[in-house]
Amino acid sequence: MKDRLKDRIALVTGASSGIGEATALALAEQGGKVAIAARRKDRLEQLAAKLADLGAEPLVLAADLTREAEAQRIVRETEARYGRLDILVNNAGVMYLEPVAEADLGRWRSMLELNVLSLIASTQAALGGMRARREGHVVNVSSVAGRVANPMAAAYAATKFGVVGFSESLRREVYKDNIRVSVIEPGMVDTELRQHVAHEASQRAVNVRAGEMRQLQAEDIADAILFCVTRPDYVCINEVLMRPTDQER
User: Fold this and answer.
1) Which of 70, 128, 142, 152 is a good FRET partner for 180, with 20 to 30 A between their CA atoms?
2) Per the database record, which ranges form the Ketoreductase domain (predicted)?
3) 3-state class (DSSP) for residue 1
4) Which residues of 109-144 are buried (b: 16+ CB within 10 A; e: fewer)?
């Protein structure tokens, strides 16, 4: 069925590639109007052309979401353009893997700012309008690393456990306002995420692990997000934990 999101307004962060790009396209294919946010404006503009062909009336929002003010600005600009925000997909994130003893704390700090604090800031900015209209849906993209903490992934797991905990606490704060909250927890996905890993041994290990399985594709995660946001108003999918069939942990 097409047009399940006709005239619904969505904002997708981390939309310049991977899960964010696939999600923006999936929402547009169902009739949604889509704002897209990320640092790489050139990639956003390429995606915007595809969204325009789908009738999504795209809004390009180049932003450094490690900065709280930027995470809030993209929500305000989306509301100013379309009049409201119905669906917020907090997808932006990075993955830095390295042993705790050798960790670059500056790098870990930037990961915490993007993976957790920017997500909180954009959500906070969206709540006022959603509460006023008594409707809205916040989708937070976490990871299986928010359920299972592996060696070399201490800080990444800390951010993703944080997203899961934040999402459930938020859900319990806003369900009486008819606002839905979903958290998506993918396993290994074939995206650019592993390219962020600067620690050579950790990057080799994660690449070997990825090569041993049929990885999830970005479109698989987009399908899960689309499923969540197209349920009837009285249905809230709280969590979606999904792994490749070949992934044990």
Assistant:
1) 70
2) 8-192
3) coil
4) eebbbbbbbbbbbbbebbbebbeeeeebbbbbbbbb
Residue 167: Cβ-neighbour burial (10 angstroms; 0-12, 13-18, 19+):
buried
| pLDDT tens column, 115-143 | 999 999 999 999 999 999 999 999 999 99
* CB distance 127 to 213 below 8 Å: no
- Catalytically active residues are 156
Tell me the residue type at 76: R
d(C-alpha 135, C-alpha 248), whole Å: 38
Alpha helix segments (H runs only) across 6-153 = 18-29, 41-53, 68-82, 105-112, 118-133
Domains and CATH numbers, the chain: 9-242 (3.40.50.720)
Q: For residues 202 and 2, what is the distance between their CA atoms, to the nearest angstrom? A: 43
The whole-angstrom distance between residue 105's C-alpha and the CA centroid of its chain comes to 24
Give the span between the Cα atoms of 139 and 188, in whole angstroms: 19
pTM (predicted TM-score): 0.94
